[in-house]
Amino acid sequence: MSQTVDRALSILPLLAEGPADLGQVADRLGVHKSTALRLLRTLHEHGLVYRQSDQRYRLGARLFALAQEAMENLDVREIAHPHLVRLNESCGHTVHLAVYEENEVLYIDKVESRYPVRMYSRIGKPVAITVAAVAKLLLADLPEHERRAVAEKLDYPAYTARSTPNATAFLRELEKVREQGWATDLGGHEESINCVAAPIRGADGRVVAAMSVSAPNVVVTADELLTLLPLVRRTADAISGEYSGRTPVKGTE
Predict the structure, then answer these.
(1) What is the pTM assigned to this prediction?
(2) CA neighbours closer than 13 Å in the CB half-sphere of residue 179
(3) Rounded CA gap, 64 and 66, in Å?
(4) Across the strands, what pairs with 99?
(5) Which residues form the HTH iclR-type domain (predicted)?
(6) Structure confidence at residue 152 (pLDDT)
(7) 53, 61, 180, 199: which has the fewest Cβ within 10 Å?
């Protein structure tokens, strides 16, 4: 039975490359045409493949509907939270998770620092979009014309002397973030607070959320915080893998 399932599932990535006829499917699977036909008929009955008028097969609409439904029901916060907790336990600093929704970047999760000095950020509240590291990652992933449109509509408050001054500087920073794959806020929002962030990506490679580690200067310097970047990026990659289905959830292997 497991071999049959394996063969049936092997047909789907083949058809993702484009329509194929019965002979091509049989050759790819290394089976007789009668076996390939039996598998294709079963997949067709479930709407996962479709037989065209030229007798070639392609992926069926039901497959796309299932994929869309699965994506809509994915909760990045639920998936990310255990990883954020472990990161917090490892470094002790405040950990945030943020998403971009309706022209705002919002915190959707937060794990508090174990140190007495706490940050005033709150779940559900917008971040300072022109300076926050998580915002830079989320906006940097937008297509160029969208990045430019967003940047030109924003106000640029001078929170500190290190705040982003205007749209030109912001777009330049977003391009840098896009190239390097991570972002920082080193005193751009509050003089005494530094932050380093990494992106969480979906199966298509697009950034679906961003996570960060933040700490005040009285606890660690900016340079000391930056040494945590590899750990932050590994955590973000682990969340990305689980969210996109590239890595199995522990206990399901």
Answers:
(1) 0.71
(2) 6
(3) 5
(4) 106
(5) 2-61
(6) 94
(7) 53
